[in-house]
Design brief:
3-stranded antiparallel beta sheet; mainly alpha; 13 strands
């Protein structure tokens, strides 16, 4: 059992602010170098087939064992919303920054969404890969399970497991085996997705660990979410290897809509959510969602999700002033004290020293030692609880407001364009506080170097402005010359129009003369025909008279 220490939000916040004054903040990455997320691939497997097998199961019994797995699997995700959201992720502070608002999924929020019937404040510890297949084979009662592995041994092919599920359905095997296969499918294809149609060994290990030790997987789900967000924010592309359904439903819970979505037990009726998606969000693309999220600080924003209950919140573990998490592929840190207002607490300056540096993957040789230290840290937990009188509205201390105004924002202030990333505007990075003269001198040297660079940039900018003035004069001359040419062309065009009009008149006269000549020609022709007939008649008459005379 872990040793638990509890504080009120005010008690913990005041201690946190005093400690932060001497510790300073974590080191910060130059946010101006962060790319805008453009290429996004949400690894969402077609869930209709797996959900088809769950139509005849006892949902109440399944919920008793696995929480809201089925409901999570049914959620449809709007990819543009996730793509826009990632652009607001701060990879150092491990939170989303919307102007002066910081938000982040917490263990408690994900726990309320999933409702696993196990204790929430437990850290996941991964099972060794070589033990996964034998343990899983026992649980599913499928001998020689290794024959379903991918060629590279990275995971199990779901289509083969699905065939086994169909066999068990026909053979009327135990409900436990069927439910376990369905739960495994959701673990590998929804909670911890990898390749399409493949359940990774890491996801299978999380399932085995839950079945054997009953450790709640919520901390591992959140860890994979944070690792994925950090990867995307620093690279700007890739495949989402976390539960996008949970991230999506968490996000839209903080976005106010014209129609209420989460007033009641929304799990049992997703129709309101679908209506809002069709009527309000269906027309929003990448740019629309980017704009919507940028407006969160001033409108369409809710600090506390409607479904959040009053619970104790874990804020630190062991000697660390934040919470270390273990996922299925790596470990990462997060500071719930940054976003305590989400759960109804008073926001104070959080302790973040060492936060940004604590992250890694299990491929590293030192990972096993780090996992052991995390396990020890989780044996001593610090939780904060809401004041007994409660808070009417989320509030913050005066010190926090000053600290937050000096904190750089890692999110873009302008939407990214389709043609390319926009400029990410921010203030200078917040400096770490110093505790001795040597550190102060080093920081002074860095500031002097940056000052020199700034002066150089200023001189370059002045030169560019001078060159711009010259260019402007040249362009004005070109414009005046162009205007003169336009006037000349307009005169020529007027003359041309006059010539064309005169030509048209002459053409009309010629046509009239031609028609008149044609009429006269027809009359002459008729006269000629009459004259020819008279000649022929007179000739015949002459011949007749001549013949009579000869007789």
């Amino acid at each position: 059992m872990a040793i638990i220490t509890k504080f009120t939000t005010v008690e913990y916040g005041q201690n946190s602010e005093l400690s932060q004054l001497s510790e300073g903040d974590c080191s910060r990455y130059d946010a101006r170098k962060l790319p805008v997320v453009k290429d996004l691939n949400c690894v969402v497997y077609e869930m209709k087939r797996i959900l088809g097998h769950s139509q005849n199961i006892d949902e109440a019994a399944f919920f008793g064992k696995y929480g809201r797995l089925l409901e999570i699997a049914k959620i449809g995700v709007l990819n543009p919303a996730i793509k826009a959201l990632i652009n607001f992720w701060d990879p150092d502070y491990r939170c989303f920054s919307f102007g002066n608002v910081d938000l982040c999924p917490t263990i408690e929020e994900y726990g309320m969404l999933m409702e696993f019937p196990k204790h929430l404040h437990q850290v996941y510890f991964p099972l060794r890969n070589d033990k996964v297949i034998p343990e899983l084979s026992k649980l599913l009662k499928i001998p020689h399970l290794s024959r379903f592995l991918e060629k590279n041994g990275s995971g199990l092919k779901w289509k083969f497991l699905e065939a086994e599920l169909e066999k068990k359905k026909e053979q009327y095997v135990s409900v436990l085996e069927r439910d376990r296969l369905i739960a495994l499918g959701i673990y590998g294809l929804v909670l911890f997705p990898s390749l399409k149609g493949v359940i990774s060994l890491e996801a299978a290990a999380a399932f085995v660990e839950y079945e054997n030790t009953h450790v709640n997987p919520t901390t591992a789900i959140l860890a994979e979410t944070l690792l994925t967000l950090n990867h995307f924010r620093k690279t700007g592309k890739g495949a989402v290897r976390c539960c996008t359904q949970l991230l999506y439903i968490w996000m839209v819970s903080h976005v106010e809509t014209k129609k209420p979505i989460f007033n009641n037990f929304w799990w049992f009726n997703q129709k309101p959510l679908k209506i809002v998606e069709e009527e309000e969000w269906g027309i929003l693309g990448d740019q629309g969602w980017m704009k919507k999220l940028q407006e969160l600080p001033s409108s369409n924003f809710s600090w506390k999700a409607p479904w959040v209950k009053s619970v104790d919140v874990i804020v630190s573990c062991g000697q660390k002033c934040w919470v270390p998490l273990i996922g299925i592929t790596g470990y990462v840190s997060y500071a719930p004290a940054l976003v305590i207002r989400q759960l109804g607490g008073i926001q104070h300056i959080p302790r973040t020293v060492g936060l940004a540096e604590f992250s890694g993957f299990f491929k590293d040789q030192s990972a096993r030692e780090v996992l052991e230290t995390i396990k020890q840290d989780w044996s001593h937990l610090t939780l904060i609880q809401k004041e007994s009188e409660g808070l009417r509205d989320p509030s913050s201390s005066e010190g926090y407001e000053k600290w937050r105004n000096l904190t750089p924002i890692a999110a873009p202030k302008k939407p990214c364009s389709e043609d390319g990333p926009s400029r990410i505007e921010e203030g200078s990075l917040k400096r770490k506080k110093v505790s001795n003269e040597e550190d102060l001198m080093k920081q002074l040297e860095r500031l002097q170097i940056e000052l020199g660079k700034s002066k150089g940039d200023k001189a370059a900018l002045e030169r560019m402005m001078m060159e711009g003035d010259k260019s402007r004069v040249f362009l004005n001359e070109q414009l005046e010359s162009r205007d003169a040419k336009i006037v000349m062309l307009e005169l020529q065009l007027s003359k041309g129009k006059a010539v064309i009009e005169e030509s048209e008149k002459e053409r009309g006269r010629l046509i009239f003369d031609c028609m008149q000549s044609s009429s006269e020609l027809e009359a002459l022709k008729a006269d000629f025909d009459g004259y020819q007939e008279n000649v022929e008649y007179n000739q015949d008459k002459f011949l007749h008279v001549r013949a009579e005379l000869l007789d």
